[in-house]
Amino acid sequence: MSFKALLLDIEGTVCPIAFVKDVLFPFFSSKVSVLLQSNDPEVKRLLAQFPAQDNLQEYIQDLVARDVKDPILKQLQGHVWAQGYYNGEIKAPVYKDAIELIKRKPEVYIYSSGSVKAQKLLFGHVEDPSSTKSIDLQPFIKSFFDINTSGKKTEPESYQKILQNIGKQPDDVLFISDNILELDAASQVGLETILAVRPGNPPVTDIKNYSILEDYSTL
Ligand SMILES: [Mg+2]
Which residues does the record give as Mg(2+) binding sites (predicted)? Predict the structure, then answer.
């Protein structure tokens, strides 16, 4: 395989799927009462837009529990997570071999459904098992893409857009993801593809013709 650039998914590919569900969501829930006392004008502005002003705490916790894609909730979560990353309470558990891969390869791009802002926070605050400090992987990543910049990850046109954006031919780029539908879309455009198989990912029943990668040190 003679790829020049790597395009990487995040969840289930470079870090555990459980990070969002088991770390980020509970972290936000634990900060709701603090959030309600906040003097930050942006937080106040966002909170004022919720309909249930008498019972905000319960209202917000209910949105979280039901995983409602509420745009105001998303912005509040983004705010709380940013604070958590900045003060060291949250660190992103990027797999050790994925950290090495990102540092080693000359052209690495990220494409995730999570916003570019959230992606930069994540890669800017990566857990370092050998230190209490975190690792900033942002300097090793050439560009970040999300649904707003490039479209849905299951649509071939999205990968076309990314290719145009980075100025590469399809077979110059290797896309790694844990999601077969995303690999289908990328391979329709002609990208090289590999299925990431990592601990904690749901089993893939129909692997089709995709190659599997369990250890990035072999790449
Ligand atoms: Mg994924």
Answer: 9, 11, 178
d(CA 123, CA 102): 10
Model confidence at 71, in pLDDT bands (50, 70, 90)? confident
Ligand 1 centroid from CA 111, angstroms: 10
- Non-local (6+) Cβ contacts of 217 within 8 A are 97, 100, 101
The strand ranges marked E within 22-139 are: 108-111, 126-127, 134-135
Query: Ligand 1 center to residue 4 CA distance, Å?
Result: 22
Binding residues for substrate: 112-113, 153
Annotated binding site for Mg(2+): 9, 11, 178
**Residue 191 CB: number of other CB atoms within 10 A?**
25
34-66 pLDDT, tens digit each = 999 999 999 999 999 999 889 999 999 999 999
- pTM for this model (two decimals): 0.91
* Interval between CA 70 and ligand 1 midpoint (Å): 22
- How far does the centroid of ligand 1 lie from the alpha carbon of residue 201, in Å? 9
All domains of the chain in start order, with CATH? 5-17+92-218 (3.40.50.1000), 20-86 (1.10.720.60)
